[in-house]
Amino acid sequence: MMRAQSRGSEGERVPGEETEKRTSLVDDAYAAMRANIRDATFAPGYQASEQEIALRLGMSRTPVHEAAIRLQEDGLVRVLPRKGILILALAPDDMREIYDVIIGIEGRAAELIAALPSAERAAAADALDSWTTAMEEAHARADLPAWGEADGAFHNMLIEHVRNGRMSRIMHTINDQSHRARMLTLNLRRGLDASIAEHRQIAQTIRTGDPDAALAAARQHRLRARDELLPLLASYGLKHL
Q1: Are 127 and 206 in contact (CB under 8 A)?
Q2: 130/203 Cα distance (integer angstroms)
Q3: In whole angstroms, what is the distance from residue 228 CA to residue 94 CA?
Q4: Closest Cα to residue 110, out of 206, 190, 25?
Q5: For the segment 188-236, what is each residue's pLDDT rounded down to a tens digit?
Q6: 156 close to 179: Cβ distance less than 8 angstroms
Q7: Do residues 241 and 95 make contact, with C-beta atoms less than 8 angstroms apart?
Q8: How far is the C-alpha of 28 from the C-alpha of 72, rounded, in Å?
Q9: Which of 33, 87, 90, 194 is the most buried (most CB within 10 A)?
């Protein structure tokens, strides 16, 4: 009996290869659209047809359509039948809900990491301290975008070291939704030094293996950030982000 060939003859399409190629194109479209939404190139409230977005990205319409469905599940866009894709804006109440989630998850993450064996705690603390140093250096040269990216990396690293897939997926979505608001208000905020000090405290409680202190430090850090950000949005009349 002859074995089935894994590759087709010249000129034939191989189903597995076609599926992989299609998945790759969708992944590329998803990454490109997500990046444009995060940096507000596709601004909140922007609406366009799938074809228009595909042209802007230099892609075909089909992967853009499938990527838009994934982004809708992430809460970043709304796919409007026969009208195209709408980039969703955030309201202050949305940010309040987002912080409620962040406070709960990041507090628990810090608590779990602080309960790990000493070698794993040390590795996590070293990574967190490294990103905090990057924040300090960016702050010293008044580079707010770099500060924001290092701050985001610190919080991503906190979740990554928990190794909890569900927690990571939730925070991935939440961080994408809140990124624009954080970056928009960076130059209005006054707590950058406080954030750096609080990050050091979180790393230290993890390094010393104190779960209760780590939970408290992570929660307090996000509570202070929330209580600083939300009044800023109100005082500047920023109703949509």
Answers
A1: no
A2: 10
A3: 15
A4: 206
A5: 777 689 999 999 999 999 999 999 999 999 999 999 989 988 887 777 6
A6: no
A7: yes
A8: 16
A9: 33
CB within 8 A of 25, min separation 6: which ones? 59, 60, 62, 63
The stretch 175-194 carries a mean pLDDT of 76
CA-derived radius of gyration, the chain: 21
Section 63-70 average pLDDT: 95
**What local confidence, expressed as pLDDT, does residue 5 receive?**
45
Tally of CA atoms within 13 A in the half-sphere of 234 that contains its CB = 9
Identify the three-state secondary structure at position 115: coil
Beta bridge partners of 77: 87
Assess contact for 87 and 37: CB atoms under 8 A: yes
135, 195 Cβ separation under 8 angstroms: yes
How do beta strands 84-87 and 47-48 pair? Answer: antiparallel
Average pLDDT rounded to a whole number, residues 156-168: 95
Sheet with strand 77-80: strands edge to edge: 47-48, 84-87, 77-80
